[in-house]
Amino acid sequence: MSYQRRVAPVADELVLAPQPIYRVEGVTQRYHKRVVLHIPALEVQRGEILALVGPSGAGKSTLLRLLNFLEAPTTGYIHFQGYSVNGNGPVPLALRRQVTTVFQRPVLLSTTVLNNVAYGLQLRGTAHARRIAAATLEQVGLAHLMDKPARTLSGGEMQRVALARAMVIEPEVLLLDEPTANLDPANVQLIEQAITEIHRQRATTMVLVTHNIFQARRLAQRIALLMEGHIVEIADTQTFFEAPQDVRTALFTRGEMVY
Known about the structure:
single chain, alpha/beta, 6-stranded mixed β-sheet, 5-stranded antiparallel β-sheet, 33% helix
């Protein structure tokens, strides 16, 4: 990947509208000869929660990997925080550190819960890493388990540890890839509450991939429907559910098979 700093002139007398934190431009992603993603244009607004919904294989997780710079786009640019990223060179570590992902199946270290959460801070040389990690575990309701081996936890507890590990480094962007898949309703509620609280306190930009359209409705300000690598429709949450512009969106929100 490569990047280029983009600086736009600013007139002192003008009050400029907030700029999107991401702008995706002409992006395609191919694996061998198969195009799995084709996004001519997409903006993610700073401080919003954007939900990506759609059937399996629609390209949602691929888009998330591009937004986290885990893959380079085959063509096109991802503009982020004033930089333009494509596939011709490395992305600076300082840029990567502004984005983190909570995956559907978190991989935890073979150590205590507290050490898992403190690990990212310690890598960055942050003072009082363990104290900060302990406070973050309190936020997700796991302070009482901080000395337990992480790999002895339940699935819901492990997912909350992963969320705390992401929260503690205070990223500009938090990407959530099916964070409540296969969890019971009680754990789903706990994780959704934690996500809502992070967003309320820090206005962290979030992109949420979920198969649960009710979860998207509860959490997101905007929702995008992806099918076969394309964005079918993107709208604010109320419009998406109550006045969709595409018939496929209307069918999808009613739970009908459209793929």
